[in-house]
Structure prediction request, 272 residues.
Amino acid sequence: MKLQIFAPHWGNAHIARDSWIASVKAAGFDGIEMSLPLEQKEREAWTRAIEDAGLLLIAQQWETVFHSDFNAHKQALRELLQNACAANPVLVNTHTGKDFYSFAQNSELLDLADSISQETGVPIVHEIHRSRFSGHPMLLMPYLQQRPQLQLNADLSHWCVACESLLEDQAEMLAQVFPQVRHIHARVGHQQGPQVNDFRAPEHAAALEQHLGWWDQILQQRQARGEAYLTITPEFGPTPYTQTLPYTNQVVSDAWELNVAMMQLLRARFQD
Prediction:
């Protein structure tokens, strides 16, 4: 199975487009995961530059988080997903719904995503994320039961926080979720937060091994189904995901450096 590893644009928007794309290429990533501009000319400038660099694209939408009103959220989701699919990416990763919307409301949003995916031919995956429809395992289960075709992006660091554990007691639940995973966000979380300060530190060894074990299972299941590839985005993020020192707000680790290191670890583990 081919592993395709993407660099997250999150936390790097302050860097000029061409300089950042060059850094991604030089680091050895296969592609970029990013939220694309809504303005067509600017969106096409990004997609053209990514393609010219020989990189792949995963389009992301997360901006619906700003819309708590259901109708506004649905309208924004439609616009953002259509914009993302217009770039013809490998797939679209979406932050869908809210944990306080009803089952019927979130189902309506999932139906909308399905229809856009069918119209455009672009796969759409829904990110496991706090405060979304998938913010806790037991929130997600009813949707899985009714939607065997539901495709997920496994960012399991969020469930570590939501469940205040490394999910040691939820193997049965994870066994139901893993077959639905098409994409992974490779960030290491812990019982009290979605991001350890440095996954290589010995004090985080247990959390790292737990996450690696989950990713192992997902990859093995995709291999068993005859899938050709698995996409993964290391996604250590900027502050407040990256912790800071009191008073000075100085970051205690460099998110970009961690993402490059995670990419190298994944290649060594899964491809060597």
